[in-house]
Amino acid sequence: MDVTEEFEWRGHRIAWGRGGEGPPLVLCHGTPWSSRLWSPFADALSRDFTVYLWDMPGYGASGKDPGHPVDLGVQGEAFAALLDHWELDRPRVVAHDYGGAVSLRAALLHGADYLALCLVDVVALRPWGSPFFRLVRENASVFGRLPDAVHEGAVRAYVAGASHRGLRDADLDTLVAPWLGGEGKAAFYRQIAQADERFTEELEPELARTPFPVHIVWGTEDTWIPVDRAHRLRAAIPGSTLSLIPEAGHLIQLDAPVALADELRRWATTRPATP
Known about the structure:
This protein has an 8-stranded mixed sheet with strand order 1-2-4-3-5-6-7-8, sandwiched between helices. It has 12 helices and 8 strands. The protein is an alpha/beta fold. 47% of the residues are buried. α2 (72-86) packs across α3 (98-108) and α6 (148-160) crosses α7. The chain has a domain at 5-124 and 203-269: Rossmann fold (3-Layer(aba) Sandwich), CATH 3.40.50. Helix content is 40%, strand content 17%. It starts with a strand and ends in a 7-residue tail after the last helix. The protein has helices spanning 39-45, 72-86, 98-108, 131-138, 140-143, 148-160, 169-176, 181-193, 198-203, 228-236, 252-255, 257-268, and strands at 5-9, 12-19, 24-28, 50-54, 92-97, 116-122, 214-219, 241-245. This is Pimeloyl-ACP methyl ester carboxylesterase. Residues 23-257 form the AB hydrolase-1 domain. InterPro entries: AB_hydrolase_1, AB_hydrolase_fold, AB_hydrolase_sf. Pfam families: Abhydrolase_1.
């Protein structure tokens, strides 16, 4: 599924796409990813659902204007606005990585409402960010001056480290491509520089009042956001459930695609229980 539609919001150009028929289901990516990571799952789920994909501002096919903020606060507001634009009636939402904080902020701070939420290896609780991520965040202006070839090598190594099983060359190329070239390189360091744990610090006290069912899915070998966060998140959200997927790292979509697809279909086709 491609993101060929556009939504203008506060000067941001947000790319999105839709496919299939049935109840609405929205897929949210994280960082440094884009909707391309979810695209095969969107195609599969579109047999039973109207599936929505989108690229966060500053990511994928969305605008990368250097003057536009791309922090988690902005992304949560953007998602709430996009849901209003789609006029969806309580969709199911699946979120990965940053998308977890984005979808939770949209609901708990900006009034979005979901039928159910599935959180897959998400950023939601402090601390978060790999050692490389934290190093870049503290020295973004320095990294931004790297020669293009060195930058590409660093990004490729960083992205590859999110997989437990190892990535095929074609998959690695797809994930790295949006961050190459002058615009992509600047956008890569800008989104890391604006990462701030205060956005999840604000969110954490609100988790206990989550008004919809939440299911948590986690790869047991995730080194970017270790599995202890899954157990902490389950404890923080009353009534939430947890499934662990073995032999999967942070890039669970590529490490364990069949297991994840089975888990998502089971979750999406089960009537949500009241939290």
